[in-house]
Amino acid sequence: MTQWPRLVRAVESLLPWGARFWRGYFRGGVDRGVCRAIHRSAARGTLYSFGPPPPLTLVAHARGRWAADEYRFRSPFVSHIAARNQAYVRHYQCGARRRPLLIVNHGTGAFAAVLERYFLERLLAAGLDVAIPVAPGFSRRRGTGDHRGGWAATVGAALSAMVQLVHDNVAIESWARARGYRTVAVSGIDLGGTVAAVLAATTARFDAVIPVLAGAHPGRLWLPPRALARAVNRRALERAGVRHARTLVRLFDPVAPARLPRPRVCERCALVGLRFDTFVPAADVRDLAVHWGVAPLWLPRRHVELPRCAGELAAIITRMTLRPSC
Length: 326
What we know:
This protein has 326 residues and is of the alpha/beta class. It has helices at residues 4-21, 32-44, 112-125, 155-178, 191-202, 234-239, 245-251, 282-292, 310-321, and strands at residues 57-60, 69-74, 86-92, 101-105, 129-133, 184-189, 208-212, 272-274, 297-299. The strands form two sheets. The protein has a seven-stranded mixed β-sheet with strand order 1-2-3-5-4-6-7, with helices on both faces. The chain has a two-stranded parallel sheet with strand order 8-9.
């Protein structure tokens, strides 16, 4: 057991190089037209204007213990990547009775799928139904040009993926209310944590919002000395005219929770951070907590240890979801 911390640190240090081996993040450059359109919409205050939700169509029934009903719908926010505009959500429930529903936006790391299974088991056992949206650039929402990490093939692709997922979550919340769910909460980890944090700042539809590993500004993820800075394809960005890391950070301003208003009801929000994480450092989570005026909850773990703390995360999220409204 004495070797475990060293092994964890070694694995965590190698993960960015593994991502870089697959041509790195933003290997396609900036996609300036998309970035410009999103920034203009944010300046006009229309980026997070949520319209009527689209209808959800059942495409697959649950079969087996871990199976889910799968629904398809047209994303309310149309991306420039056509394959991502058809959205999907997996709905897990136990019995016919409507229990509280938790929308979980999982992350993009190497352990995302493993963590999802651990998470799911504990959340269902704790008395929650679970809805898991498929993020743009993954599974069925992957275009023919998307490879591993395709959600961030360009800066524009990453930016639009986050905005699209925000709108998709609102559509799922409206669908859940129509199905009779009285309590609908939202959470997320890593990329999903940023989506949950943006939802907390842009809508009061959710009964609880619990972002995990969400910093004040997602653009900082790519800023040295953070670990993911080593995974960025700098040459591709330089060819697109981005020669300074600060410029890359500013491109993510529309999805930065610190650039948005604080949640209207902070009592319904909880921020969870990992004390020793190098991907989303404690300082980033603390900055968002200061902006929101809440006390962050800390787990003494690193990023690669997320599956080991699935039980602790599930307990925190369940407690916030089942907490009576003030």
